[in-house]
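Moderator note: this is an archived Q&A kept for reference. The question asked for a predicted structure of one protein chain; the sequence and the answer are reproduced below.
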Amino acid sequence: MILTRLARPLLLASLLAGSALPAQTHTPAPSPVDAVDPFIGTSGEGHTFPGAVAPFGMVQLSPDTHVGPARQTYNWAAGYRHEDPTILGFSHTHFSGAGHSDLGDFLVMPVSGDTVPLEAGTADTPGYRSRKADEVASPGYYAVTLTDPGVRAEMTAGTRIGVHRYAFRADKAAHLVLDLRSVIYDYPGKILWSSIRIRPDGTITGSREIRGWATPRRLFFAIRFSAPLTGHQFVTTEKDVLYKGFKGPGRGPETLVSLSGRAIVAQLDFSRIAKPLEVKVALSGVDEDGAIANLSSEPGDFDAIRAKTRAAWADALGAVQIAAPAPMRINIYTALYHSLMAPSIWGDADGRWRGPDDQVHGPSGFTMHSTFSLWDTFRAEHPLLTLIQPDAKNADFVNSLIAGQKTNPFGILPVWQFAGKETWTMIGYHAVPVIADACLKGIKGIDCAAALKAMVASADYAPYGGLSDYMKLGYVPIDREPEAASKTVEYAYDDWTIARLARQLGDAATAQRFEKRAANWRNSFDAKTGFLRARKADGTFRTPFDPTAINYGSDYTEGNAWQYSWFMPHDQGGLFRLLGGDAKAVAKLDAMFDYDNSKIDYSHAEDISGLIGQYIHGNEPSHHVAYLYSYAGQPWRTQERLKQIVESQYKPTPNGLAGNDDLGQMSAWLVFTALGFYPVAPGSGEYAIGRPFVERAEMRVGDKRFIMVADGLSDANRYVGTVTLNGQPLDRSVITDAEIRAGGELRFTMQPTPNKIWATGVKARPYSMTGYGKR
């Protein structure tokens, strides 16, 4: 929705006033593209950016606002915060909602007048930095007025390109600053090398190699302008100059046509220009020629690229047609938008790509993607994409993961990968459930037998994360490996998905081996306390034990015993049996949500946000927990908790996300939950039914249409009364992936009081490997 930030609060106030009421408009709802607000999550804990990007695009062209040391802080992980009064410039790569910083490549900033500062300055003493006004954004488009140079700046993006458009004042000379020194996170010795040159046809190309989160990381660029350069200056600000520059005709540094070094900034001059200046930039992870080819692969001016990208967003967002009150509709379509940004394309237009071995590969018969935040996205993001994106796109994701394993020097699947490089961040081998889920759902274009080999290779790589001990002892010992309790249960779940795929492929030996490993979560569960705990190599549980303690590198990963004691999504029934049955499981769930945190300080833990008792919606380990009441035969309690979460954790405002969006996982949770079901255990082929938050949704799944209708939905009618599937009563709290892919209608009848009969029986509950709900 393209609105000025001044107008937006007034609109939202009017929308929120009616948020509890069903939509009763007789005019057509705005298109999905116009329902998206890219500013949601750009403040608070969301870590999103408002700039221009195409679906899964290589380029994320967005403003950076960080200042000095602030760029090293957690809050600027996407380079931008909505409340910042100034803009540093516009760079071409950004993460959407990550919990860590990097990127911000090739920053461009317009400057007007006779003096061109080559340093950014600060908010109080600006150089080329400028104050901002009148920001607007919609999918594939961003615009802002830079008040200091008096320039209206617009951004759009294609698949592998970003396009800037700058309207300068007619009475002042127009310039651009291209800063190859700028990054979002100031890693020590960050720029290993960079280069820039002007080619005979006026195209500017260059590169830089970065020491950062994933290191070393190489990226190349090519730039063309709609107006000719009238002058330029390439400058290095290195104290100890180690560079080579090549001069063109004439004398002086302004005539350099090529410069290499570790701290390069360029001044590009255009004199006075009557028309807006368009700047088209392409990226490549391969080489400068690849960037030039990518530039040529997407012809057209700013308006043509913007229209093409808007059409791509209309198609991608149109896979789900939603009828809901305006605030909810904005929330959900923005969530869907955030879910469709990553994994991002990494392969060039000619099919080549740079792998984790730093070698160039391809063409490979598929489009290489990177930016896999797998510890987050295996839960809901990738399962959502298997439904609303074509098989070919999902096959690209899986084939990219397998290619990453083949080219990784250690022979394992990606863990947290971007720009083709591995960061080794987070735990588990969660490429495994992504691959298994896609294969088990029958996604075409994947060699699932080869995929299984890659999955097993990762699960059997003994040097990784305590796997050697895990395979010998059946758990990860805390006196030999940090975060051991979390690693044990996450490995066990991943192992279960390997076993599921092996069974489907007829590999009984592999299935049996990993089915045994899938039960390893029990080896770290302490039935006496009712919590998952870290064990030492001698078999004893580590003491002292505090289930509320959160300390990085301790027993758990970004959480504590309260969250991780529920992480056996493939075997919740087995857990409930250990807890003493349904009633005790429900009591423990209630104790988690109702816990009094008033005497606990979590300010040291950056990822701990969105607390409802000890339920932490701002981070992923809790995301499935509200659905677990249904596993204990009390689906109405799931319905109550979901309402509590949705109303407190999502708002159509810049600070409307309770925690990091984490490359779409926080958003995908909302999309699924709004539709009335959620993939608690990807790989099971099932979705646990919760309750809907929209009146009607129509999902495009392949060539079929799956419709969800919520009759009588209102703030008062918050409970599910009855459910039908294709007109027949559905007496279970689960719907299968096959039923959704077949098309049809899931219809809820909502009511003001709980239905304590529906879906309470053991056979009516979602899948569990052992115990309750086993099928």
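Archived answer notes: Residues 653 and 665 are 18 Å apart (CA to CA).
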